[in-house]
Amino acid sequence: xxxxxxxxxxxxxxxxxxxxxxxxxxxxxxxxxxxxxxxxxxxxxxxxxxxxxxxxxxxxxxxxxxxxxxxxxxxxxxxxxxxxxxxxxxxxxxxxxxxxxxxxxxxxxxxxxxxxxxxxxxxxxxxxxxxxxxxxxxxxxxxxxxxxxxxxxxxxxxxxxxxxxxxxxxxxxxxxxxxxxxxxxxxxxxxxxxxxxxxxxxxxxxxxxxxxxxxxxxxxxxxxxxxxxxxxxxxxxxxxxxxxxxxxxxxxxxxxxxxxxxxxxxxxxxxxxxxxxxxxxxxxxxxxxxxx
Length: 292
Description:
Elements (H helix, E strand, L loop, with lengths): L29 H25 L3 E8 L5 H8 L8 E5 L5 H4 L5 H4 L8 E5 L8 H4 L20 H20 L2 E9 L2 H13 L9 H7 L2 H15 L6 E5 L3 H16 L12 H5 L1 H9 L2
Parallel strand pairs: 1-3, 1-4, 2-3, 4-5
């Protein structure tokens, strides 16, 4: 398998989204790629246990993609060997009536991981500068002072939101949350194939909605919004990674590899040691149990 580094996929400078690859040939069979993923996720599971015991960092893993991008299955496969007590998956849908009575970041704030745990955001706070930007009429449901019609939602409004999201991420990063953001980058052609498979397979029909085709017609608009997101919000403390995702096994392996590489950089995350006084008593505790 060819050498892979997280830096190959990290967005560290302004990008053009049409130049980001959707395919990444690993020069290995699917079986070998899956086996590599299994080994990697076991290592991640071990690191997660150490993170939990250490209790000083939290990890926020964010996933964004176009429809059919493969987020659900990737999350299932990459986090399969995690202890369930240490990871929580949040899938953000349209905001509820209660959520709309708070500011747009509130529901993401309350879902943040506590120290020692992972949170996975399946769709994220970036929907607030993505789908709402493609469909600005959705902003009206937030009942924001001074926003009475779509005409009140101008470029300055979106720039303010980008600034607020950057501040949100900087605040939680400064307080011990490790942030890793992944865009599963599929081609428009691959999306077409996946939508057709949903229609061809009866057990997949439930995933299809006519709205998928309406959103597909807005592909170019979505791509422009994603490009702005990457260029305005990929920061050293909260980087974006663009993952070639036309092949699902490759995307899963790349995400797992990046997670492992990045988490291994935190060499201060170690299991706590017992106090010397308690350690000295271990032989006695063993003897008590053996004689029980």
